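FIELD: query
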Amino acid sequence: MAAIAAGDRARESGVPADITVFERDDRVGRSILATGNGRCNFSNAAIDVERYRNARFVSSAFDALGNPSFVLDSFEGLGLLWREESDGRLYPLANKASVVVDVLRAAAAELGVREACEREVAAVDPPREAEKPFTLRMSDGVFERADAVVLACGGRWSSSIGVEGLPFEPLSPVLGPLRVAKQDIPLVRELDNIRVRCAVDLARDGGAALQTIASERGELMFRKYGVSGICVFNLSRFARRGDVLRICFLPDEVAGNASGYLAARHRSLSRRFGETVTFEQMLRGVLLPRVSEAVLKKGGFQPGSAFRKRDASRLAELLTRFPLVVEGIGDSDICQVRRGGFSPDAVDPATMQARACPGLFLAGEALDVDGPCGGYNLHWAWTSGAIAGRSAVELMSGAGFE
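FIELD: result
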């Protein structure tokens, strides 16, 4: 997207520009092919800027474009058709990520952009004198020169590219599954691969009581080491070791008065099954049997024991705030984003140019910006890349570079 924006701006302004995409992989856009389970959730119909990390910076960048529909307008101009799914997620109509790569590559090729694959940039050296070019040190020992550089390498590789004088936040994986503490491992191991629709809170010790940090709802999947699913991925952006995931298995209309619901349920079941109603009977038809067993085990209840009125409060607590203590990220290879990268404080959001290094522009995950699942991170990639590419050509034009 940065290369396309640069090519478009160069063509509009008549500035001669030789644009090259240096790619360490054997083809450009390979990482796009893996997004959205191979379908590429390329944007969202209702982006909420406040959900981004460093939201003020992101908001300023979006404002700089002056067009809230920039991403969708751009892809429409490239010839992409799409459809909207739940929560505003946008996917290509063809349902394959490859078509997103295809329209991007075609547009770049038409503008004369050169793809230099299997060319890894090891370091970017700023000019030592005014109006001199940057030096790109390639991993094979070759040097390349450029009047302007857009660093759009993604968070995973940003830390390996040295740029003197730019503050850099350490990288950490987010948007992934969570591992639970040792005491909860036997419980989740028994639930491995079971999926539940639920609401989940992430709570943290606030001194007197746990305080809710973030909340999500959706499908949660138990894993041998912890929990996964989009709702968990989103909570992983805020989770710290020692935080508590609190799972609500009941629908909203019941969860608000779970104790009352259980008392009424007990009366109803007593009329059908007799005066003695077991815990197993109380949860039959509410939860999957294995989930019921886990809930009861957590509370120290026996499935075949008789449910008593005094048990309603404790069982209600387990059904609406089933606790799992967070240990950390469960599997970093599954994480969709690496938090960290070059600090937005060092970058002009209107141009994506590094304040201390004119001619160097940063985009996408190279910056310490991340958002939730649902197309947010690719939306940021396209937006910041377009700003950076356009601004790079404008700088060259203003500086009189050839």
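FIELD: remark
The longest helix spans residues 376-399.
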